[in-house]
Amino acid sequence: MSDDHPHWSPLSLHDMTVAYQRRPVIWDIDYKAQPGRLVAIVGPNGAGKSTLIKASLDLIPKVAGGVRFFGELYASQRHRVAYVPQRTNVDWDFPVTALDVVAMGLYRQIGWFWPVTRKWKQKALESLEKVGMVDMARRQISQLSGGQQQRVFLARALAQGADLYLMDEPFAGVDAATERAIVELLRQLRAEGKTALVVHHDLQTVTDYFDDVLMMNMRLIASGPVSEVFTPENLKKTYGGKLGILDQVGLRLAGQGPTP
Amino acid sequence: MLSRPIFLPLAQLNWDYNTQVVFLGTTLLGIAAGVVGAFMVFRKRALVGDVIGHSALPGLGLAFLFGEWMSPGAGRSTTSLMGGALLAGLVGAGLVLLMERTRRIKSDAALALVLSLFYGGGTVLFSIIQRLPGGGQAGLGSFLSGKTASLLAADVSMLAVAAVVLLGITLFFFKELILIGFDAEYAAAGGWPVRTLDTLLIFLVAAITVLGMQCVGLVLVVALLLTPASAARFWSQDARKVVALSGVLGGLSAGLGTLISATWPRLPAGAIIVLTGLGVFVISLTLGRQGGLWERWRGSRSLQQRILRDDVLRGIYEILEASTPTPDRTGTFSPSELRSRHSWPTRQQDRLMMELIDEGSVISQGDRFRLTEHGLSLARQTVRLHRLWELYLMEYANAAQGHVDLHADVSEHFLDPRLLAELEERYGSRIPMGSVPQSPHALPSAVSPVESH
User: Fold this and answer.
1) Which of B176, B190, B239 comes nearest A96 by C-beta?
2) Which residues of chain B have a CB within 8 Å of the CB of A101?
3) CATH class assigned to B13-291
4) Where are the domains of chain B?
5) Whole-model pTM?
6) Which residues, in sequence order, are bridge partners of residue A41?
7) Considering only CA atoms, which of A165, A142, A143, A145 is closest in space to residue A155?
């Protein structure tokens, strides 16, 4: 078992299969994340990228397979794992401020029933500082732009002080300033020895932003360092007949890796 | 009776011991219902409250029959009836959640199905009970439409204690209930027992429903939960304040409703309490400062006013531009010239002209008008911005020259300061600050010929 789920790996998946209504969405995924790396999870729509993350976090049931965080079951490692859901999952008209949302990342540490005291608010502000949103702390969340909302979500995850970050499309629909802020943040996390798995749609930036890549389309196509794995051949396998995607990646890939 | 002055109802109020007790009980219940209801609305479970109310009906019937079967007469005990109602309400809510999990039935359909099933079943049970010997006096009817005025002191003290306990439980879990209301998935990932918290919330809603049934009847009880929270949302964007205000409004409407129905005993008390709450809601919907109708109307009106003002200033400047070649634009214009350039209504233009005269931007000169220094600088600023924006649109948005005016008209009123700064930065060197560039397109010529002066 320890071979399948070594302690050094922040997230190890062994033969993981997930199904909705008996129809498999992801099949037999075997994967071990390397520590201290920024990992992009890429694949076409419906490839099961979000499902991979949610099933790992026990948010949806698995049909088969095992998931371990740092070699242990998730329940015992929750304090080391932070999840950033898709921004569109929640109702942004909810009557809370940016600071309130970030404080939710501290609820585990605060514990049941105890209110969010000044000490915790200060901690939440520190997280907001890291994403350049301190000025917006008292804003009601509906008054934030999409990019600012995304940064609030990131700050909430940061507040947890985790070692592994699972992010579902943090770059989707954000402005250029937010994109830069997120990239900066990811690099800072890596410098602190932390690991991030990020569902990512923009193939053009994969080589710039990430160290490793996990390419999937219901099953695992390839995983490993971007320079070795992110090849036109693997992209074709991942995206199938949608060659337009390859054009998108364009010249960036020319001369990189074996050409098909 | 007829001579009773209707405008002095409170003076007529029979403020006896029983009324005081009932007032206290319903007010406490209103507060608890408002607070619990706020969390129900946060979790988007308003209709579950409705299902619980309707599902309680067969519970009442069964509890009565069971009690009578155990020992005749015991079926009428309020405690056992309420216990039955609570159980049935919880079963109804549980069924809805189970049906949703199949994913084949969407939540609105599941709610409607369960509601009809339980209410139908309850109606049949009630008609059977009515035909039983002694069933007619079972007193079940009071649960259908409420019996606020005739509540007994014993009922009320139980009501009050229960309301305070429920209020306490809810506030105890404040932070956790907010968390699952905002982002249940994140809560689950963090290890919070979302399903247990949901069950707790449903239990709280069911308990309020069963308590409220005695006051307003089971069909209307959802209004006690829903109305204060909905009203409170129009006053605050802060969950803490929304919850507090929802409690206050809930207590206020229930207390006031009780007083009104004590003054006019012939009116159905339950319905009066609910209608009082709805009155509070309508006031909030209209006057609320967070998205109320009045505020919205004012907001869109002030935007329209600003747009019109900009357009009129620009219209004046363009007339003067044609008639006065010198940059001091000392020429005059008449309202009819202005009107011929744009399609704004005469009345609005007249009002705006009055405004411009009042603020000293425009002064009359004979039967014509001219811009003051202040007015000219305002007009320059407006026209400059308009033309910079036109230039920008032509360069970067591929707008054809002939259409540029229309595009610019619509969007320039929404420019944010960042973009304004960018415009100035981009064109500032070519077109010095404060000066007005040539219009990049042909300007409409006035219909009436511009008089020379």
Assistant:
1) B239
2) 182
3) mainly alpha
4) 13-291, 296-427
5) 0.82
6) A199, A214
7) A165
